[in-house]
Design brief:
Helices cover 80% and strands 0% of the residues. The chain is mainly alpha-helical. The protein has one domain. α1 packs across α11, α3 packs antiparallel against α4 and α4 packs antiparallel against α6. It has 12 helices and no strands.
Amino acid sequence: MWIGAAIFTMLCFGTNNMIFKWSTTKGYSKIHIQLFFYLVAFSLSLSYGLFIGIHHMNIVTIVLGTLIGILNANGNIQMSKAFEKGPANITSSLISMNTIIPVLCASLIFHEHITLIQWVGIVIMLCSAVVIQYSPSTNVHIDYLPWMLRISFAILSLGILGVLMKASTYLNIHPLNTLICMYGGGAVYLIVNSLIQKESWQKSEGKIGAVVGLLSVVGYSCYFFALKSGISSIVFPIVSLSCLVVLCGSFFIFHEKLKIHQIVGVITALLGIIFTKI
């Protein structure tokens, strides 16, 4: 059941990444879309919480949830800025390695037992995520130092995010409480960023953000369930394979051709999932 939840999270996150990719071609602000999706997600999670009754909210939940929201928003912002400084394909491949941080922490800090065959599956999935997104580029200008700094910040933000999510389930914090604090804290962070950036607002950004927000609530709900019920060292690599959705979407929607190494990456990714279930 928890592997199914992790795969559903992968589909939701992959669809959102596809929407972000499409919105970039239309010139929409990623900060604005994120802000709208955080506000919509916060409204949905808070409304649901008020309807069923919010569990006891303490300072640890508020701080932890807020940090998760800020790290998620900051990771996405740093990634978008890294795309501006260097080739997007190599950037995506490097940032996808952030999964190694929560995988190692789950084993070393939270003492999860992982069999040798499962470790093989984890490594295969991580390598597949990198291979799928990688595409050699030539004659591409790279503003190296700012590019590497943005990539490093994105890796740290998204990697620590995964560790904190696991910590929240380890501390038995109710996922709904974490979601409310996550989206609320992230929304405040994005409001500050939007005031600093002073980008032009477009009406369509609200509609796009609403769709992304709905998918995010569903995706993160499944994510927390998978982390609480299953082996997080396996959950994290599966979620990182959201690039599979982007790859397939690019093929069917944008009619981008698949390269041989990407096809191999897809096959090995599926093989990795099978290994983790043995």
